[in-house]
Automatic annotation (TrEMBL):
Residues 147-212 form the HTH luxR-type domain. Transmembrane segments: none annotated. This is DNA-binding response regulator. Pfam families: GerE, Response_reg. The keyword DNA repair does not apply. PANTHER family: TRANSCRIPTIONAL REGULATORY PROTEIN NARL-RELATED, TWO-COMPONENT RESPONSE REGULATOR. The modification 4-aspartylphosphate is found at residue 55. Keywords: DNA-binding, Phosphoprotein, Transcription, Transcription regulation. InterPro entries: CheY-like_superfamily, NreC/VraR/RcsB-like_REC, Sig_transdc_resp-reg_C-effctor, Sig_transdc_resp-reg_receiver, Tscrpt_reg_LuxR_C, WalR-like. The keyword Metal-binding does not apply. Residues 4-120 form the Response regulatory domain.
Length: 219
């Protein structure tokens, strides 16, 4: 199956470079290019891509707001945010808005295509420990988000699982900690994502922090 990609960046040369890299792979195809966030949202609705490469800084509508609109419109597309700094505070805002990960613009071509494939499968692009470090650093200095969806629909066990996801534990590690089978943990993770309306494990880590189940470590 060919994975469909929309590239959103206000620089035409950057879009062309990404298209050349992506279209050179048999299993990937660029189906649309957007020069601003509004166009990225429109193309995502019209073309139903699997993955959107989204630059943070774009005119008309920025990448963070465009990501939020894509998440809220019910699209199944997963968003990878493009940034020039791996410690950019905008990364956290983008993850909160619904992005599934972020990429540096100076990545190698192989890293780009691998990231697209991983994200399309629903796998975690960011190692949980890396994501936790990013959140630790910026949630100490950024304003609190809007109140997240209530946890009242989660069972006690599901809250435990969400907390451990936020602590960067894998399903196998959670299973060992709670003395459950990995299959049972997987079911709990699926239930947590469904009940909280989260797209993937990255979003679950962000939710655990935003709900206060995990606190940023002091510097």
């Amino acid at each position: 199956m060919t994975l469909r990609v929309v590239v959103a960046d206000d620089q035409a040369l950057v879009r062309t470079g990404f298209r050349m890299i992506i279209d050179a792979r048999d299993d990937l195809e660029v189906v649309g290019e957007a020069s601003d966030g509004r166009e990225a949202v429109r193309l995502t609705r019209e073309l139903a891509p699997d993955v959107v490469l989204m630059d943070v800084r774009m005119p008309v509508v920025d990448g963070i707001e465009a990501t939020r609109q894509i998440a809220e419109c019910g699209s199944r597309a997963r968003v990878l945010v493009l940034t020039t700094w791996d410690v950019d505070a905008h990364v956290v805002a983008a993850l909160r808005a619904g992005a599934s990960g972020f990429l540096l613009k100076d990545m190698r071509p192989t890293e780009l295509v691998d990231a697209i494939r991983l994200t399309a499968r629903g796998d975690a692009l960011l190692a949980p420990a890396v994501l936790s470090r990013v959140l630790d650093r910026f949630l100490r200095t950024t304003p609190d988000p809007a109140p997240p969806p209530s946890l009242k629909d989660l069972s006690g066990r599901e809250r435990e699982v969400l907390t451990l996801i936020g602590q960067a534990l894998s399903n196998a590690e959670i299973a060992g900690r709670l003395r459950l089978s990995e299959a049972t943990v997987k079911n709990h993770v699926t239930a947590v994502l469904r009940k909280l309306g989260l797209r993937d494990r990255v979003q679950a880590v962000v939710a655990a922090y935003d709900h206060g189940l995990v606190r940023p470590r002091r510097p």
